[in-house]
Write a structure and sequence with these properties.
The protein is mainly alpha-helical. It has 4 domains: 130 residues; 82 residues, K Homology domain, type 1 (Ribosomal Protein S8, Chain: A, domain 1, 2-Layer Sandwich), CATH 3.30.1370.10; 100 residues, Orthogonal Bundle (Hypothetical protein af1432), CATH 1.10.3210; 73 residues, 2-Layer Sandwich (GMP Synthetase, Chain A, domain 3), CATH 3.30.300. 72% of the residues lie in helices and 7% in strands. The chain is elongated.
């Protein structure tokens, strides 16, 4: 019989109890099955967790081993570098010790020479005294023989010498004038070529190159690049030559355009600092630097005009003024020179009751032609005047620019003032190529030439070396000897010194008689 048939014969309460019992049995069966599944899942999770833990431990051990190897390798490299540095330091110490020994030997040698020199000076002084005594004795004997006084003998001798000297001087002067006329052109060419050889090389080398320090020698290889592609890209982008030689830690940028050279210098410094050196990045950095320099040029021109109180200047002229910041002439910054000339013009114009702003404008723009560049035709004065005329500057300004080197006829007083202030700014001590040390040495040399003559008491170089005043002992040098000494000193200065313009030699002989009334 089926359960349904059985239930038909059972009363309702019994059926309900039986159904409840069956439901409980089914629930307990499902619960036991769920518990078995849960136990299986827990066991599987435990096994999986164990596997993950083992794998993590193995990975951690492998990573720890790798880091330990890297640390040991880095430590070994550091030790090697320290050893190399120790070797270099020991070599330097050895070199310093050798140099100290050499210096000690030289000091001893110099001390020996000084002692010998002092002995020789003492002997010379003794012989000089003996010679003076002998000369005095001979003079007394001559005076006795000639029956003439000392003054009479001097007059007789000097009169004869003067006649002979006048004849000889006239012959020599005539001969030299004739030779000078015959060889004037050849001598002029020789002097100009000599001056160019002496001056041009140093000025050109300093004005067309910029040196850049490198952090290490490895950077040279990165700048050159594979098969030279980086250096070619840099030269093409900037228009400046890059010179990489054997000089440690330095490369040189060479080019006549000072603005482009400044762009190249700043670009190279940025590339070295950034470390990424390849053609695409080089072009990007150069373009960025060009924009920065153009902005600096524009701001510099505007700031200069604002500081000087000069307004309504054409934007192109302002830009050219800014370019003068990177231009030098004989070592003198061209923008600073123009500002200096402008200020001097304003001062002089104020004293002469002229238009101060116009005068300052003429001074500021007088060398604007130097900023045009290699495309300029003619001299900087003529080109600058044409440029100013094109941008509607006043005729006084145009003439001052074109005529400040006498290349155009002078039409106003401002042109004359620009010529004078330009010379003042360029000629002051230290303004141009001559350094302070060289300037002081030239003054000392000028004084030493003057004091090398017998009878000179003291000598003073004044007027920035354009004049030397020589004080002579009145009891040893008379007026005629002083005149001849002045001539000889001037010739000696010509022979031994190089200087612009001329040097005035003034010999002063002064006799003073002082008495005290009691």
């Amino acid at each position: 019989m089926q359960i349904s048939q059985i239930l038909m014969y059972l009363p309702l309460p019994a059926c309900i109890a039986l159904g409840y019992f069956i439901c409980i049995l089914a629930y307990r069966k499902r619960q036991s099955a769920n518990e078995k599944k849960l136990k299986q899942l827990i066991e599987e999770s435990t096994r999986e967790a164990g596997k993950v833990r083992k794998e993590a431990e193995l990975a951690a051990k492998a990573e720890l081993y790798q880091r330990r190897e890297a640390f040991e390798k880095e430590t070994q490299e550091t030790r090697m570098e320290l050893k190399q540095q120790e070797r270099r330091l020991s070599k330097r110490e050895d070199n310093l010790e050798r140099k100290m020994e050499l210096l000690t030997k030289k000091e001893r040698y110099i001390d020996t020479l000084s002692a010998n020199f002092a002995l020789k000076e003492k002997k010379i002084d003794e012989k000089r005294l003996e010679l003076e005594k002998v000369i005095e004795e001979e003079n007394r004997e001559l005076l006795k023989i000639s029956n003439l006084s000392r003054e009479e003998a001097e007059k007789l001798l000097l009169s004869r010498l003067e006649k002979e000297l006048d004849i000889k001087c006239a012959e020599v002067i005539s001969k030299k004038i004739t030779e000078a006329k015959e060889n004037a052109e050849q001598t002029a060419v020789s002097l100009i070529s000599t001056a160019i050889q002496r001056c041009a090389a140093a000025h050109t080398a300093e004005n067309i190159v910029s040196a850049i320090e490198l952090p290490n020698n490895e950077m040279k290889g990165r700048i050159i690049g594979r098969e030279g592609r980086n250096i070619r890209a840099f030269e093409k982008a900037t228009g400046i030559d890059v010179i990489v030689d054997d000089t440690p830690g330095v490369i040189v940028l060479s080019g006549f355009d000072s603005v482009r050279r400044e762009i190249a210098r700043q670009s190279m410094e940025k590339l070295i600092l950034d470390g990424r050196i390849h053609p695409a990045h080089i072009e990007e950095i150069v373009k960025e630097t060009e924009k920065e320099i153009e902005q600096v040029i524009q701001e510099t021109g505007k700031q200069t005009c604002f500081e000087l109180g000069i307004h309504n200047v054409h934007p192109e002229l302002i830009k050219l003024l800014g370019r003068l910041k990177y231009r030098t002439s004989y070592g003198q910054n061209q923008l600073q020179h123009s500002i200096e000339v402008s200020n001097l013009m304003g001062i002089i114009a104020g004293e002469l009751k002229l238009d101060v702003l116009l005068a300052k404008r003429c001074g500021l723009l007088h060398d604007i032609g130097k900023a045009i560049g290699p495309e300029m035709e003619g001299t900087h004065a003529v080109a600058g005047a044409d440029l100013a005329k094109r941008y509607d500057e006043r005729p006084e300004v145009v003439n001052a620019i074109g005529g400040h080197h006498e290349e155009k006829p002078v039409e106003s007083v401002y042109t004359v003032l620009v010529s004078a202030t330009d010379a003042i700014s360029a000629a002051r001590p230290g303004a141009r190529r001559e350094t302070l040390e060289k300037y002081i040495k030239r003054l000392e040399r000028l004084e030493s030439i003057a004091t090398s003559f017998s009878g000179v008491e003291s000598a003073y170089a004044i007027q920035a070396g354009r004049e030397v005043r020589v004080m002579v002992c009145p009891d040893k040098v008379n007026d005629k000897i002083a005149a001849k000494m002045c001539y000889d000193i001037a010739r000696e200065v010509e022979a031994q010194l190089e200087y612009p313009g001329e040097v005035v030699v003034t010999v002063i002989r002064e006799t003073r008689f002082v008495e005290h009334a009691k």
